[in-house]
């Protein structure tokens, strides 16, 4: 389904389950985006940053190269909210774990979203077809 992003760009919204069965030639991250890519498509995990919020990759357990060259067998998302008593710099914190598995191994990616409570702290995922 085509949707319009915050910056006006049109893209296909993807679901984590769309990665299962895919074989990727590269998987990269820069702290704010994670990109799965092959010859025909590109999946990007990201968050369009707005005022008074921060969403990014906090930690990666495992080796991203385990996700390259072999089918993704496991792709799931688990998220939750940090109890208010455990943080003080923001009014709201949301963590999201993405779990990926192949026959080579497993990779867990932990994202953390923080805001004043009025902005999104979620991770978005888009799919782009290559020409």
Task: Kindly describe this structure.
- With 131 residues, the protein is mainly beta.
- It has one domain.
- It is 0% helix and 49% strand.
- It is built from no helices and ten strands.
- The protein has strands at 2-4, 10-13, 26-29, 34-37, 41-46, 53-61, 74-81, 92-101, 106-115, 124-129.
- Strands 1-2-10-5-4-3 form a six-stranded antiparallel sheet, with no helix packed on it. A four-stranded antiparallel sheet has the order 6-9-8-7, with no helix packed on it.
**What is the domain total for the residues?**
1
User: Cα distance, first to last residue?
Assistant: 18 Å
Compute the number of helices. 0
In percent, how helical is the residue content?
under 10%
Structural class: mainly beta
Task: Tally the beta strands.
Answer: 10
**Shape field:** globular
Q: The biggest beta sheet, please?
A: 6 strands, antiparallel
Helix and strand element order? EEEEEEEEEE
- Strand content bin: over 45%
Rg from alpha-carbon coordinates: 15 Å
Strand order of the largest sheet: 1-2-10-5-4-3
Which stretches of 5+ consecutive residues score pLDDT under 50?
Answer: none
Mean of residue pLDDT? 87
Assembly type: single chain
């Amino acid at each position: 389904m085509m949707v319009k992003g915050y910056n006006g760009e049109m893209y296909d919204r993807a679901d984590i389950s769309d990665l299962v069965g895919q074989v990727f030639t590269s998987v990269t991250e820069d702290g704010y985006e994670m990109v799965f890519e092959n010859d025909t498509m590109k999946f990007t995990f990201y968050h369009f940053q707005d005022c008074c919020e921060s969403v990014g990759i906090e930690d990666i357990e495992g080796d991203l190269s385990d996700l390259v060259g072999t089918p993704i067998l496991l792709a799931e998302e688990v998220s939750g909210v940090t109890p208010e008593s455990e943080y003080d710099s923001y009014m709201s914190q949301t963590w999201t774990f993405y779990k990926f598995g192949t026959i080579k191994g497993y990779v867990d990616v932990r994202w953390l979203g923080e805001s004043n409570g009025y902005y999104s702290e979620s991770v978005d995922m888009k799919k782009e077809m290559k020409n």
